[in-house]
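Notebook, bench 3.
Goal today: get a predicted structure for BrnA antitoxin family protein from Allochromatium tepidum so we can plan the truncation constructs. The sequence was checked against the plasmid map this morning, with no discrepancies at the termini. Length recorded as 94 residues. Pasting the sequence as submitted so the record is complete.
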Amino acid sequence: MIDAAPEMVSFDPDSPPTRPDDWKEALFVPGGGYPAVKAALEQRRRTRGPQKTPKKVPTTIRFDADVLQGLRATGKGWQTRVNEAMREWLERRG
């Protein structure tokens, strides 16, 4: 960390001035240091942002073990695919 008065910091003409929008995603970590910054970034990654509309509603559903195993075996996004399959089933019933 450089403890210099602002007038002692040299100006870089190749570096454009920052705008407020440049700082909207900034993360302030009191005390700083690599471990604190790393922990703060990991915490931010675990936090979900706002959902796209329409919002999903958490629920509980019971599947036979072999059905659930088969669904999970299809890989990432299996819950979305189940949701799409249920929507198609409802439309066909309509």
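DSSP finds three helices and no strands in the chain. The first helix runs from residue 34 to 46.
Flagging this for group meeting.
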